[in-house]
Each structure stands twice: as C-alpha cells, then as structure tokens.
Specification:
The chain contains 10 helices and 9 strands. With 278 residues, the chain is of the alpha/beta class. The mean pLDDT is 97.
Length: 278
C-alpha cells in the first residue's frame, strides 16, 4: 500500500492511499480519516460510498465530516467508485452514468466489464481486509453510508450484511435501480438480462425478498432534479412500511443533489451512526 498524501486534520490524520487491487486488477485509491486516539485503541469504522462521476476526493474535499469524526472517535473510509486505468473498459459513448466512475457497487459478469468491475467484492471484502491490517480499526463495529449511486451501494450492502454493519444511512439514494433509467442501463450492462441477478443489487427488491436491518436513515432533497425519475424514495418508504423496517425518511425542502446538501446533514448521519456503533 502506497501513501499518496497525509495531512493533519482536527487532531487526527487524513490520508490518501493507493494499492494494487486483486479484485479489480488495477491500482485503487481510497481515503481514510483516523481521529485522535489513545495508543492501542481500536476505533469504529464508517464507510462512505460516493455517487456517479465521483472519486474518493469528492467527500474528502466537500463532506464536512472531519470535525465530528474527531469528536466521536470514528474512522471514516471513502473508496473510489470504479476501477480506473487505460485498459479498463468504459461506456462506449463516454456517458457519465456507466463505466468509469460508475461501478454501481456490483461484481460485473458481462464482458468487457467482468475483468475489472468487481466493486462489490472490493468494498465488502478486499478493502476491509486492508483497513483491518493497516489502521486501528475495530472491524466488529462498522457502519455504512453513501450518496446517490453510493446510497444504493450502502443500502444494498447493509441489507445483505446486517450483522456486519451496525448502522446504514444514505443521502438521495437510488433505492430501486431495477425500476429507474440509471439502473436499466447499469444492471443489464454489468449483470446481464437476468432480472433475478438485479434483485440482489436493489434495496427495494432486497426488502421485498426478506432482507432486514434494524433501522435506516435517508435524507432526500425536495429540489433534487433526479428525485422523480431516478431516486423515487417513496418506493423504499412503501417497502419498509410493508416489511416493518424502521425507516426515517426526511424530505428536506430546498435542497438539491449536491454536496451542499450532504455537508449540511452529515453531522446528523454521523451522530446517528455513532450511537449505534457504541
């Protein structure tokens, strides 16, 4: 693992790291904030998954999480959103919503994406192992959150591994990719036409199929231009109500899809996670 850069922040350290990934077959970059802590302490870990077009740097530069992570004693990990490199397949038209920067947190089975696009295994297996080996992380206390495509990733991963992640939350998530244009492009492109395979990467479908977590927190801006066509939080609300999942869905007037929205409510989410991480 190569250290790209490290800086002091709120008494802790903010580092950017690069490593050769066995899952993606490429060099992957991720960021980690480690709060101030006593020697020998093991700290809970919050995973943050970013959205379409993003890298680890979007939340690192705009997320406004460091002060509260320092106060609450939380390690904050932000991976990239896709493999990258000259030999990594991209959307044929260089569109923003598929290919580079748009891995959708799945393990692709379709060519030419199957070779590198293994973001599910990278985020749930390989990178946690790297964090456990190199940082003062208590891997028995993990939680996960994300934005947009990353909100989709956080919800589906949290629902799939409810015993691993003590809290799950999202900002403006894609809750039902099987039912919206972004998903209609990404899911068959990465996973093929078998809709049964799609359901494992669709939060609403997972809940319909029996997946459960104790509680979910979702914030959604009412002025989000993707709200009606791509995000559809009402589908998650209906699925949770039918399944008895405790969902707190907060519709925020005047907020759009940007990091102004995320940074405004980041403190609420981290506080919510910290209570559940103990």
């Amino acid at each position: 693992m190569e250290t790209v850069s490290t800086n002091a922040a709120h008494g802790g350290t903010q580092g950017v790291y690069k490593h050769a990934s066995r899952e993606t077959g490429t060099d992957m970059t991720f960021s980690v904030f480690v709060p101030p802590h006593a020697d020998g302490a093991r700290l809970p870990v919050v995973w943050y998954l970013s959205g379409l077009t993003c890298t680890h740097a979007n939340v690192t530069e705009k997320g406004e999480y460091r002060r509260l992570c320092a106060e609450l004693g939380l390690i904050f990990v932000a991976p990239d959103t896709s493999p990258r490199g000259e030999d990594v397949a991209d959307d044929a038209d260089k569109a923003y919503d598929f290919g580079l920067g748009a891995g959708f947190y799945v393990d692709a089975t379709q060519e030419p994406f199957a070779k590198h696009y293994r973001m599910w295994s990278y985020v749930t297996d390989e990178l946690p192992g790297l964090i456990a080996q190199n940082f003062p992380a208590d891997m028995d206390r993990q939680s996960i959150m994300g934005h947009s495509m990353g909100g989709h990733g956080a919800l589906t991963i949290g629902l799939t591994f409810p015993d691993r992640y003590k809290a799950v939350s999202a900002f403006a998530p894609i809750v039902a990719p099987s039912q919206v244009p972004w998903g209609h492009k990404a899911l068959p492109g990465y996973l093929g036409e078998d809709r049964a395979a799609w359901r494992k990467h669709d939060a609403v479908a997972l809940i319909e199929d029996g997946a459960r977590v104790d509680a979910l927190l979702v914030d959604q801006g009412e002025a989000d231009n993707f709200l009606a066509a791509q995000l559809k939080p009402e589908l998650l609300e209906a699925a949770c109500a039918k399944a008895g999942v405790d969902l707190t869905l907060r519709m925020q007037p005047g907020y759009d899809h940007s990091y102004y929205f995320i940074s405004t409510f980041m403190e609420d989410h981290l506080t919510w996670h910290a209570k559940r991480l103990g």
